[in-house]
Every structure is written in C-alpha cells, then in structure tokens.
Design a protein that fits this description.
The chain is an alpha/beta fold. Helices cover 37% and strands 26% of the residues.
Length: 242
Amino acid sequence: MLKINRLSVHYGENPVLRNISLEINKGEIISIIGSNGAGKSTTLRSISGLLQFSSGEIEFEGQKLSRLTPSQIVRAGISHCPEGRQLWPDLTVMENLEMGAYIHSDKQAFKKDLEEVMSLFPILSQRKNQLAGSMSGGEQQSLAIARALMSRPKLILFDEPSLGLAPILVESILVKIQELRDKGLTVLLVEQNANAALGISDRGYVMEKGEISLTGKSQDLLNNEQVKKIYLGICEEPGQIV
C-alpha cells in the first residue's frame, strides 16, 4: 500500500533522514520505534506532505506523493493523527470532528461517519458540545483519533498516541488502534513505548539517527537482545534493568 524508497530529509543543512526505505502492506499495523530525535515524526510528516523531502520517493497505492499537497494526500486516503493531538482547543468536540471531515460534502455520509466514531468513542457523544481544550488527556486523544477518521482514510498515521497518558489509558488507546485494523484500516504507528508498539504491530522498524537500523516481525524484535536492552529496558542478565 505504501512504499518509501531511499527517503532523505534535511532541516537546513542538517540531515534528519538518511536514505530510509520501508513498506506497508494493506491491513498491517507497522510500528516505528526509536529514541527522541531518531527521525520517526519526520517520517510521518514527510508522508503526509507537511515536510518536503530532499531525495527519494514515497508511493501510496502506486501514486507518487512528492508533488501532492497535504490536502491532496488526505483525499488520496492518508490521515495523520499528530503528536500532541493538535486539536483546536477553542472549538467544540463536534466542530473538531467537522474540521476532520472538511474534504467531504455529503451530509448523509458525514452523519454515518459521525455515528461510527461516536460508537468507537462513546465519551465523545457525551462531550460533543464541550470545548476540546477543556477535556482530559485521554478524551483529547480519543478526539484526535476520531477527527483523523472523519476523512475516511485507508492508511492512518499515529504519532506517539500514548504520550502523556496514564498506563490504563495507553492500553485503551492501543486496543482502539487494533479495532481500527480489524475494521479494515492500515496503520503506521510511531511510538517511544517500544513494548506497547511492538505488542500490537505485525512488523517493526527501528530508527537510529535518521536511519533504519533493524527491521523484522514484531515478535522477533521483542526477542532481539539489542532491542530489549536499548528500547525495552531489559539487560541480558536476569533481574537487571537499565
């Protein structure tokens, strides 16, 4: 569904991504893990058209994305749920959802989509007239996901959806992401919580300093000694935590 081939991105003269390549098949959950500054968010922003890349190519369902605007990329079927949620805090829940559906004009389809996201996140139905900025962190993350779904994506990009949430809320959000895959969506998940990300994904990519250093099935990465030591906080010697 999505293919990235030798993608490089610079901020000024500083390289941020260095010739990365990855592929996502329809119906997969793919995770990208790595430390702060590894280039994970830059990868997502490049896919969604928010950043211009220096070289390489991104293809979605055979269509090259390099000359498309972010709006055209959304229309092609890619939705981005950004780090920090990036809601409109002074708009209501309903108004944020309406903004997520801006590319569609069919009122009946909007009503159907609204019913679906309200079914997935019942709390939003109760909060529909509440200002987004006054909601709790978990409620805001639910709204950010629901807003991304209102464009009817085929592929949804998640950037640190667990950031700042209590463990019980993290588990709930991850369950929702799995439900989305079960409904037919394809997911690219960026997470610092490597254990959580690999726990729900089919395959994973490890990024270090703008490069992909390791890739494989998620279970294999969970069992990889390097990944366990650096990203899961587990030493080779039992009982020691790093």
